[in-house]
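Predicting structure from sequence has reshaped protein science. With that in mind, we have picked out one protein's residues alongside their backbone shape tokens:
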Amino acid sequence: MRNFATEPYKETEVQVEHVLRTNTGEWFQYYAGDEENNYWIMKDIEDEELINFPLHQYTLLETKPRQIPEKEPDIQID
């Protein structure tokens, strides 16, 4: 089963930071690794962290549901 974001949030007070909830209930933070946005970091938010996580500082982004295509089977070449 593949995971995909179902609830994206955005926080912009300090820097652009996103929080994503997946279809399996996992939570991730997605944020720039430096001031020039040269690279981005995706970090798991553990269940223990969710208890005190400041989700109220984030805005829920409106998204449209999309049909995610299934992965095609790998081709076996002998």
Remarks:
- DSSP finds one helix and five strands in the chain.
- The longest strand covers residues 5-11.
- Helices lie at 47-50.
